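hey
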């Protein structure tokens, strides 16, 4: 990767020259003396077998358990070694093939003396220990830190093993550090020490006599992984969202590796002879990612360094070869990134290299062109893409903006923050054949910008660039749906035909980043559940998603045993029936003794799979979590309601008539927790499915929505339509209840604040103990608001650098990857 500022390179080179290459690389940071361990028999716990003494040293970095100690320097101040201190919670696995009973045992650390040097300790078996082979004169021992069962990352633990003296380890792309404010440099970053992987080999150890006092075995642990100690010095101009270390030549620096300890000599501070191999893969593993977020009294915030402050990260890499041509990318928060080449630096296997960098100056209003840096072969299904609902609604000028306005940031701000999916809401063109001149709307009011103008703005950003954009045309109508739905699809196709100068691309399972660069990708939401089996023409470009339209509740899709909306024919099986007819008063306002909230329908399994049609007519499916109307707490909301005339002893379903003053209540059950569960389930499904099946389903996770609010009648009005004429002299046998405007408004502002903060914090917590995976599209409201709204785009984008990215080579079976491949039904195909 090219360096973006020559001045930055000069400062790096100046630092290198000042200290000389040897000083920077802390070559062979050898450890403490390998003192033989001895212990009296009466101090050895009975039944625990052989006791081991352990010490460790090198040049590396660690986290919550094993800790780095002080550096050892020579007379010139050059770092020559670093002690590694043991903690009481540390555990190792020790293998001895000649042990008569168990051959592999987990051992825990016990300090000799709390006041003594913490890098020396006893290793005592946690159960029955290894035993001496009394049939021989010598015995071999092989040890690995950490023990498999003590690893903190469950996902990594599943792929690690230590059998017959062979370690199969895994270095993850995502390496979370715990960042805290304080320390001598102003900030401290503590990594997960599990990824250091230390080994100890003791071959040909003389078996002591049964009455010998010298009954212990000395083990000297040396690090296996390569370590880059990266210090970033302030000040920062824009907060730091993430740091990435790249191998510019595409060399794998993360992923699987193996070390056969049985082929190594006895380890000491100066000689390990540990040769490790790594597995080739089509998966992109040429990067390591570190989050720049820290906890500030319960809120996760991006890192900011003041003048004189610095922070040091320890980055663990595969130990298979000398690494040169390394770059460091620093990503600003909701802005651009800067990449710096570590010219002249070599990272040696099993050793630590220390490098200092001045924080790059990243303007707060820079453009986050995050797709440009992606490798061409990466599949689109592997990406996490932040998007916005009603993307141009910041133009809305109504006084009730908190109830209708999904965005407060302009399109330009959204683009700069890295948003790459945009929803354009508008009606069909009643007077023409194309959507080109149709006004985008919010609260079904014109926004002063047409569909064609908005697409042009997006196209001007992507054409001839390394980026791409997704556009979601969404049908909105204040005049009904009927024939207008089909007309909208036809008008959209005409728009495609009239704009052949755009570069279009259609999502597919094998679509790569390289294929999509400089293109527009259309994913249209036109039909809704209430449109029934309405047949649309095939899309001229992109994808049409079926029945993802105007309903704000999606009761049936959410798993409730009711119909998605109430009609004259199905009113008894609608949620409206439970929410209105059986509520706390009857039709005259008298208490209804029959109402029982516990009899409300219970949520079951969700069904968020939607049918799709691609350009050319092929079909598939997409998984879309989307229901907008959310209730923060259970409540009965007053509503004026009129009833039909009684006939045959029965009352017809209600319709709304504001000329008749019968006060009713609408019962709304709390659903914020339900929305959170659905969001998180979709997040995890997207990760699992795309890791394992590589794009067999594309996910759209909609965080947009609003609260039901007593100040906004439309927020709690059921979706069944109303009539404003008198109920007298009607044809009751043929009465219809058309769809109304229930649910078209709500408290967007409060909901966006709550849901964005919740999802933001959940994602960051999730990352401390899991390997990340693709989120696909995440649709957001209020992306530039304080708190989670401003943080989420950056967090979603940085997720693209936190897991091994599957490439087209893997789909086509050219080589293996970190994710197992299983063929499945195509998504938007």
């Amino acid at each position: 990767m090219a360096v973006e500022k020559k001045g930055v390179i000069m400062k790096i080179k100046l630092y290198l020259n000042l200290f000389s290459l040897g000083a920077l690389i802390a070559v062979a940071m050898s450890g403490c003396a390998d003192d033989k361990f001895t212990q009296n028999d009466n101090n050895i716990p009975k039944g625990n077998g052989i006791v081991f003494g352990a010490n460790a040293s090198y040049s590396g970095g660690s986290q919550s358990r094993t800790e780095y100690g002080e550096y050892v320097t020579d007379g010139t101040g050059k770092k020559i070694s670093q002690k590694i201190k043991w903690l009481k919670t540390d555990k190792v696995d020790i293998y001895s093939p000649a042990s008569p009973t168990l051959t592999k045992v987990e051992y825990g650390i016990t300090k000799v003396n709390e006041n003594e040097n913490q890098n020396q300790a006893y290793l005592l078996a946690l159960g029955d220990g290894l035993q001496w082979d009394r049939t021989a004169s010598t015995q071999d021992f092989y040890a690995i830190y950490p023990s498999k069962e003590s690893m903190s990352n469950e996902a990594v633990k599943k792929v690690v093993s230590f059998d017959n003296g062979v370690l199969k380890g895994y270095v993850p792309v995502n390496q979370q550090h715990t960042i805290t404010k304080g320390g001598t440099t102003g900030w401290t970053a503590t990594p997960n020490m599990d990824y250091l992987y230390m080994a100890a080999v003791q071959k040909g150890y003389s078996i002591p006599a049964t009455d010998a006092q010298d009954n212990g075995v000395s083990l000297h642990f040396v690090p296996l992984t390569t370590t880059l100690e990266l210090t970033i010095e302030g000040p920062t101009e824009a907060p730091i969202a993430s740091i990435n270390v790249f191998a510019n030549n595409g060399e794998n620096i993360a992923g699987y590796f193996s070390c056969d300890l049985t082929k190594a000599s006895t380890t000491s501070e100066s000689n390990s002879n540990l040769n490790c191999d790594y597995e080739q893969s089509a998966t992109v593993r040429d990067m390591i990612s570190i989050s720049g977020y820290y906890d500030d009294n319960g809120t996760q915030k991006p890192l900011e360094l003041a003048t004189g402050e610095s922070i040091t990260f320890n980055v663990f890499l595969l130990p298979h070869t000398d690494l040169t041509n390394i770059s460091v990318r620093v990503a600003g928060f909701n802005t651009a990134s800067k990449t710096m080449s570590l010219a002249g630096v070599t990272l040696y296997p099993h050793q630590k290299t220390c490098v200092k960098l001045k924080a790059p100056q990243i303007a707060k209003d820079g453009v986050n062109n995050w797709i440009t840096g992606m490798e061409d072969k990466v599949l689109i299904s592997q990406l996490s893409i932040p998007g916005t609902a009603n993307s141009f609604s910041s133009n809305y000028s109504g006084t009730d903006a908190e109830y209708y306005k999904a965005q407060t940031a302009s399109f330009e701000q959204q683009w700069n923050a890295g948003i790459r999916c945009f929803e354009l809401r508008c009606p069909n063109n009643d007077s023409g054949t194309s959507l080109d001149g149709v006004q985008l709307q919010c609260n079904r009011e014109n926004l002063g910008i047409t569909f064609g103008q908005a697409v042009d703005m997006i196209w001007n950003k992507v054409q001839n660039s390394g980026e791409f954009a997704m556009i979601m045309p969404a049908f909105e109508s204040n005049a009904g749906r009927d024939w207008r739905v089909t007309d909208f699809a036809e008008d959209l196709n005409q728009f495609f035909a009239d704009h052949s100068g755009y570069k279009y691309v259609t999502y597919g399972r094998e679509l790569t980043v390289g294929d999509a660069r400089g293109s527009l990708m259309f994913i249209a939401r036109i039909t809704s559940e209430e449109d029934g089996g309405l047949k649309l023409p095939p899309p001229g470009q992109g994808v049409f998603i079926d029945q993802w339209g105007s309903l704000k509740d999606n009761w049936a899709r959410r798993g409730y045993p009711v119909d998605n909306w109430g009609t004259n024919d199905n009113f008894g099986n609608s949620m409206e029936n439970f929410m209105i007819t059986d509520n706390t008063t009857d039709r005259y306002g008298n208490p209804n003794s029959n109402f029982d909230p516990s009899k409300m329908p219970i949520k079951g399994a969700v069904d968020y799979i939607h049918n799709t049609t691609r350009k050319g007519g092929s079909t598939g499916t997409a998984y879309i979590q989307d229901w907008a109307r959310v209730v923060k707490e259970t409540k009965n909301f007053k509503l004026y309601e009129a009833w039909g005339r009684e006939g045959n002893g029965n009352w017809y379903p209600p319709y709304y008539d504001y000329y008749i003053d019968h006060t009713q209540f609408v019962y709304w059950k709390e659903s914020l927790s339900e929305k959170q569960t659905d969001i998180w389930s979709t997040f995890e499904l997207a990760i699992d499915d795309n890791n394992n099946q590589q794009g067999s389903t594309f996910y759209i996770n909609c965080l947009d929505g609003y609260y039901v609010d007593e100040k906004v009648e439309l927020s709690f009005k059921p979706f069944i339509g109303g009539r404003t004429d008198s109920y007298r002299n009607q044809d009751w046998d043929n009465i219809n209840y058309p769809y109304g405007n229930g649910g078209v408004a709500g408290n967007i502002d409060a909901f966006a604040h709550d849901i964005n903060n919740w999802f933001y914090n959940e994602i960051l917590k999730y990352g401390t103990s899991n390997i990340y995976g693709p989120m696909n599209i995440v649709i957001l409201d209020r992306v530039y608001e304080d708190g989670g709204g401003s943080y989420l785009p950056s967090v979603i984008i940085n997720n693209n650098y936190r897991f091994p990215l599957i490439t087209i080579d893997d789909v086509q079976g050219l080589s293996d990857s970190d994710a197992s491949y299983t063929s499945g039904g195509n998504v938007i195909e």
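The radius of gyration is 32 Å. The chain has three domains: 6-358, 375-560+607-630+671-708+753-829, 563-602+635-668+710-745.
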